[in-house]
Amino acid sequence: MRLSVNGADVFAATGGKEFDPNLPTVVFLHGSGLDHRGWALQTRWFAYHGYSVLAPDLPGHSLSGGEPCASIEVSAAWLSEFLDAADVKAAHIVGHSQGFLTALEFAKNNPDRVLSLTAIGTAAAIPVNQALIDTAKDSAAKAAHMMVNWGFGPGAHNGASAVPGMQPIAIGRAIMSRNPLAVDLQACADYQGGSDAVQALGNIPGCCILADQDKMTPIKAGLKLAEAMGVSPTIIKGFGHMLPIEAPRETLNALRAFISSVQNQAAA
Amino acid sequence: MSNSSFYKPSTIALHTGYSPESDYGSRAVPIYQTTSFAFDDVSDAQSLFNVERGGHIYSRISNPTVAVLEQRLAALEGGSGAICTASGMSALYSTFTTLCSAGDHIVSSAQIYGSTATLLRHTLPRFDIQTDFIPINDAKALEAAIKPNTKLVFCESISNPGMEVSNLPEIARIANAKGIPVVVDATFSTPALCRPIEHGANIVVHSVTKWIGGHGTAIGGAIIDGGNFDWGNGRFPEMTEPFAPYHGMRFWEEFGPNCFAMKVRSEAMRDLGPAMAPQNAFLILQGVETLNLRMQKHVENTVALRDWLLEQDAVTWVNHPELESNASADVAKSLFPNGAGSMLCFGVTGGRAGGTAFVNAVQLSSHLANVGDSRTLVIHPGSTTHSRLDKDALEAAGISEDLIRVSVGLEDIKDIIGDFSKGLKAAARATS
To answer: For chain A, which terminus, N or C, has the lower number of CB atoms within 10 Å?
Structure first.
């Protein structure tokens, strides 16, 4: 669906069903240079199993207008405006990579609006090599090529695909090449507030889904995040950083289990 | 598999899309000779039908053996996805009808395969899809031919049998600027010699029956989505508007760079049913494994035969993309640094009679209506593959009465030349 957020036209995927703010809402936040399509094989399940789904393209990405958010703090503020526009008071927030940094900062500032917080393929801080940022400034396509090389695990490099006949690496590269990757990477590199934000999460239920072959946010950093969040991580073996795309079923299973349990506890 | 990064084409051809960890460790790709796939439970079935997860339901739509070939071809071409079909013609039909509805228009190169020309000239007009044929490397003609209802520009990487190389970067520049995708039949080149997507093409189609399969054992086709076209530009409601059979799914929103392939899978494969048989996918995979090696040898033999033919008194002319006499020689050098395929055409003294005598006299070379076999093949297109075209269409397609088309095989070049010597002697006798 399309929403107006801060005067900009924003697209959010709703998982193939009309959005209903009265249902428990799950918000999916994509990583650097990506868009809602990375969540295609998670959003549809939630939308057809009792939830409402919002997977926005962040401003300036793919189908959304507006200027890309120059910092994690700005994107967290934007998320608040976005939820207001969708008439969502509180939601389960799921973030992949940079998307989790946004979710984390948002949760710190708006704990009452977060029903649960899920970190996928990420860490409390995502340092980015300056050479990669400079490459992205020069050519998003070149940087995207490097990103998918490191970002996808060995299976995807061998052409494995959860959807018959498709090439996840090529799809990821095509999406990233057209989006403001340099701005996203700079925002990740600049964000220093992650550790403090984790400490401020309080009683928000948390979940960490990590990949043992992650080269972008190595699992060591992900495990530290899980420890700081006080959660036992789900480690998906044999896959890389792009878990929602590379291992959609495993990622969905972990998400389903966590979010369902939070919903059940809330109902009890 | 190791953690190595992007594999090179020869490695992709052997490995991509399949790892032996599954299926009892079978090193070769197993043949899933089954019509359908059992669901875990009702919820699992529901998830598959609702595209909540990927997987196989029914082999008309997708099949694991076929999917390996699809993923391998997509990787070799640098595309976002691929769909394999029962034949090259069904790949073209599926592509055209995925993009065009009644009232729509196609711009096509005039120099194309006879059956493709028939599809565009006679079959699609029955469904009110019209085609204008142009000299595809004429930029002004291309610009002028594109209409508000044009849905695609079609050409062959190397035309059959005119041997014209399409100037893909220029064609893509003009078409894409007008919001039109470029569809390239790259059967004659294969990804071993040219990757059209790297030169701006948006969809690549193959008859994998030919060099990709390479052994003349199985019919098949492939459609590769380049993942590089903006289907949301307003010209393609088929991609952006709700698709009723899938609960109103909007393909561009949902799948982005692989929305064309997903649309072919969801509509053409389901409704038309041109599925590739798993056994054929297996046979073609055997060919793919050695594609790069075979194409090197094909090219080597072709160049040697071409140069020999140029010196023969009974040969009146030779056409090969790299020859200066070919109008697209410069384009060929730019797009085909490793050789411009293994097809060549030539004329013999005595016109039609000489050509007939040549074809009847050769023994090692097979006289048949195929190309891209491991064996050398010859044919007289005017009386066979392009016989349905009238005189004007034949001329536009660059086919003269004396034209002999050769698909140069992998035999020892000395034996091929020996066989052609017999043919040329027969042609000379026929005219004396």
So the answer is: C
Where is the domain boundary, B257, B287, B317?
B287
Distance CA B371, CA B409 (A): 9
Residues 95 through 124 of chain A touching chain B, CB cutoff 8 Å: none
Instruction: Name which of A2, A45, A163, A250 to mutate to probe chain B: the one with the most chain B Cβ atoms within 10 A of its Cβ.
Output: A163
Number of A:B CB contacts under 8 A?
Answer: 137
* Residues A167, B248: C-beta atoms closer than 8 Å: no
Nearest to A41 among B54, B75, B258 (CB): B54
Residues of B with CB below 8 A from A163's CB?
Answer: 54, 81
* Residue A71: CB atoms within 10 Å: 18
Strands A91-96 and A114-120: parallel
**Domains and their CATH numbers in chain A:** 2-126+191-267 (3.40.50.1820)
What is the ipTM metric for this complex? Answer: 0.94
Single residue among B263, B287, B311 that ends a domain in this structure:
B287
- A218 contacts in B (CB within 8 Å)? none
| Residue B342 belongs to domain with CATH number | 3.90.1150.10
Residue B4 lies in a domain: no
pLDDT, block means (10 residues), chain B with 432 residues: 65 94 86 96 90 93 97 96 98 98 97 93 98 97 98 96 94 98 97 97 98 96 97 95 89 95 96 98 98 98 98 96 96 96 94 88 93 94 72 74 92 98 93 70
**Do the chains contact at B261 and A213, CB–CB below 8 Å?**
no
Q: Note whether B299 and B249 are same-domain residues.
A: no
Number of residues written out for chain A: 268
From the CB of residue B296, how many other CB atoms can be counted at a distance below 10 Å? Answer: 14
Nearest 5°: phi and psi at B3? -90, 15
Q: Does A165 touch chain B (CB under 8 A)?
A: yes
Helix (H/G/I), strand (E/B), else coil: B27 = coil
Number of domains, chain B? 2
Expressed as residue numbers, the domain containing B354 is 292-431
